[in-house]
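Page 37, top half.
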Amino acid sequence: MGRLPRTFYQESNLIMRLPSIYHNLPRGFRLFLKGFRQSARILLNLEKRFVSINNYLRDFPNMGEFICDTNIPLFSAAPCYTLHDKSYVTNSIVLQGGCLRLSHASCFASSDIIQFANGGLWYELRDFYHSVHKKSNCSDGIVLTHDEPKWYEIKSYRKVQYLENGFFLSGIFSGNYYHFLISILPRLQYIDSIPSDVPLLVDKCVERISTFKQALAYCNNEHRPIIILDDNIRYVVTNLYLVTIQAAAQPNYGIGQLLSYDDDLYSREALKFVRDAALRHLHTNTNLPKRVFISRKNASGLRKFNERECIEALKPLGFEVIYPENLSFDDQVSLFNQADCIVGGSGAAFTNILFSSNKVKYIILEGYRSGISIFSSIASYVNANLLYIYDKALGDIPNGDYIHIDFCINPQELCSMVKKITST
């Protein structure tokens, strides 16, 4: 295709995304624009059809295989909002998965999507959530636009790099501490199943963020070489090794979708793998405080709340402020393992509950009573005591549109809860 169709496609795409312009065009021109855009997408090879892994291996048995096949039980635990709440645990879903090898497949940085040799796309998280419920919009870094459930338009890559072998350790939100520890690192529990000369394919965050680098080093027991994936390159791998879902962590909720604690599901074996790897290298730091307030001051601008007011209220109770981004991975593990009580606004730092001893008490502050089980499931696994406090003015808004809403916590309620939880 020449430059003219591609340029016209880009301009028509822009017009259709501006309703104030598009809907004022004559109806005939709107139909022409829509038809041309659809044809151009196909001619320019921007559209890709999603295919399940089972269907692909059935139709092309010589293009891949499962190296180890196992059942993966998933669970979730409901969050608690009072000392009298009992965390309800669900163990109802068992996935069939494991480690597999694909021939001449393509992978991308910061993406869960795999492109098969025939051009089809595999997005396992999308397949999973569409089989369970339709809440997730399953967005991904390389997806530009989509027309559910048939077609997706993906990012176009000018650069292609060919690799002989690779073990895929990338994924959506890989630069987020929670997703890296819970969704990506557990794949390494299958590393013994593949040849010893296969390198790990990881995102730039591992090179850039020291905590990620250290966490990976503890899980990379065989000290395999690492290849850093570039965001602007499509990697075609002769033998691409992958691991199926180890944690079904919702990437994004669709507009208006109601939340439930069992939307996010976890494998106990996956959690155990990362926990054991970190605790094998535990270095107790006696200089760390026992009563801790985890600050979000330097975090993203999401979920802002009256943090300074909460800190001042807790200081007389012996709390000290910690900025987790200033701690090494070893110190974060040590902090969450040896503290008496940890309080803070909901954020990725509480992934470290995974390394907790069962004597540590946690209070997480959130905007409304969401019921999301991200950290309560981890706390349930390690038998830690975790309570949530929410903004009573917001109340119950179990809707995915408001996950990152700003909020205000009652300092007196917080202090009262700290005194109660630390006395039990």
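Page 37, bottom half:
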Amino acid sequence: MAWVNRGDSTALELASASISIGIYTDGRECHYDLARAANFNVCVLGMSGAGKTHNIRRLAQSFCGLGMTVFMPDVQGDLANIPGSVDIPFRYRSKHGSVNPLRVDSDPDGGGVDMAIRQAIHVIRMFSRQMGTRQEADLRALLDAAFHDAGFLAEDRTTWGKPAPSLKDVLDQAQEVLVRITHGVDENVLALIEKHRSKVDQILNKEGHTEKYDRAVARLTESVKRLVCEGVGGELGKRRWDANRLESLIHILEGIVATGLFNGDDMEIRRHQINRFDLTKLHKVDQQVMLHLLLERCFEFAKRSCKHLNPSIPQLAVVLDEGKYATAWMQDMLSPLNRIATEGRKYGCGLIMGVQSLRHLSEDASDNFGMSLVLKLSDKACERAARIFRVPESLLDQIQPRRDGLYSFNGSRFARVVLEA
């Protein structure tokens, strides 16, 4: 990602910052006070048509107005045309909008080459759920070799800042290995094979088809395998490759590389602005993978740019209008979304998430919202919200779509608020 400063901003130096939410029923103004928030996470809960997207758009603008950088993946197009936002379109085979899954986080805690390889395998598995353990081991060997060729050493942090290899590099290596184990024999190897074959022919002509002949054929077969495999250079040459398994892995990598979405970090991100990642033209599988990678980049940026732990207000906000797309990740403690939700406060990173039901959130995430705004809910979601938030269902039933909602700050008792238009 290339970062571009919009200009000097002192907004993030404010001792306090608040965002107007609406008016309490007793006439008092309702403000979300970031400086007093236990964390910077916001949950907007509401059914379709309740005004969830409208309030999320307004919150994103308010966060940006305080000088924060806003990351806003958009999978449905509902977040388009926000005044002042910068669109970053992701399209197939485009020259722009690409993320490299092999990028190395230089953070000594949770970063490095080993973690980059683990994350890359996780991403590739999202395209091929049926990948077996042996095929994964082949992929790990290819990734190890790609990083080694790019100058990375897992034990040497000074190498972690080099330009990372790409999936195209890994694909090229896999194809080269396949060629060498199936066809790649040079003149020296051919000469050695011919020498062994001549001995077999001599035995056959002299003694006929005997046990000695069978042993000679077996030695010839093993020698051919060994000599061809030795043609694969470096650490890759030490592995016993299976051509069919490797060919299957190549097909997976070819499909990923062909999209043009995962070949390198090619995005211009603007600080202190709303950066809308337009994923609307992608297949759902590619949307899921891209969301995972973008959230991972957001968390890396938050850690890297945080000057003081636990700042009074956030420097970065991540906006997800449809939290249901990330439901599976909320169950993974180490997913970037869960880490933003549970660890983001420490690095000045907030999460604004819109969901239609609390079942889309993990228990950890549900407990980590400094602000909750409940809009009109479906009957089923209403029952769950009443139980978890300890709010009478009769109070939830009184909410009018696009007009009012229930507001809670730092786990306080929910209060009814007439929302700003």
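Margin note: The longest strand covers residues 18-24.
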